[in-house]
Amino acid sequence: MRDTRESRLLLVLLVAIAFALITVDIRAGEESPVDGARRAAAAVLGPVEMGVATAVDPVANAIGAVRDSGERHSRITVLERENAALKLKLGSEDRTRSRIQELDTMLKRAGAGQYGIKGAEVIAMGAAQGFSWTVTIDAGSKDGIQRDMTVLNGDGLVGRVTTVGPDTSTVLLANDPDFTVGTRLEKTGELGFATGQGDRALSVQMLNGRARISPGDRLVTFGSRANKPFVPGVPLGEVVRIDPAGSGLTRTVHVRPFVGFSRLDIVGVVVVPPRQDPRDAVLPPKPEPPKPTPTVTVTVTPSPAVSGRPTDEEER
């Protein structure tokens, strides 16, 4: 439209009419004379508005999703972090329960043998001072630890202390090839010397070549003079194989140690030896052998008719 005098007058007139209609509509309220025209316009333009809204809504939703994506990502991150913390907590609780049980078992073993022990934790494993099988524990001279003290856990003999520092100590494990300990066979009291063989069973030289030994027999430590480096009665292991008896005075048996040397955690250093030899008191009770399952035998006795013998009616 060209910008002429007539067009300007028409625009002013239309604006005046619009203000007049707005004023009349506001003052009349629900009885407004333009209400019918409003309803007619709504009936005509409503479908058009719905179509436009349908076309625009996905775009609006996408814009909203983009706007909220940062907040959702932050919440997902928080939830993932909470889940990870929960899993870690559950795992730590399981580990704590396991360690409490391990400590409880060790204290029961020490109580049965009347050993005074100092609890410690294994903090490192590996070679030290040329030894092949050693661990480092977090207890030293400040805790009353001395060289050549016996080390045990809830399963049995772990080793002996070889080096002592102010806060830590080195323990030579019982499966080290340089490790030797005197042994005594359960019940019979037959003596021997056990030597470590790394990840294989301990080799035990029995002093009596004619000693009666069977797989499953258990051994404990015999003890040393002045209880160093070994106190008596600490469970050592179970016989798994016996070499054939030769012409020598000794006999070799192979003993599986009770202690799992590759999974050590909580240990106890015997700082006060027992007043007397506990003998077999520290060994746990042997499990009872399984009882045989009773069998039922059913005997079938054939009737006279089945055996071929005629009945009274057949004889008649």
Query: What would you call the shape?
Result: elongated
Mean pLDDT: 79
Write the H/E string, N to C: HHEEEEEEEEEEEEHH
Strand order of the largest sheet: 1-2-5-4-3-12
Q: Sketch the major β-sheet.
A: 6 strands, antiparallel, barrel
Helix/strand class: alpha+beta
The fraction of residues in strands falls at 15-25%
Low-confidence stretches: 42-46
Cα separation of the termini: 137 Å
In helices, the fraction of residues equals 25-40%
What is the CA-atom radius of gyration, in angstroms?
46 Å
Number of helices: 4
* Number of strand segments: 12
Short note summarizing the structure:
This protein has 316 residues and is α+β, with helices and mostly antiparallel strands.
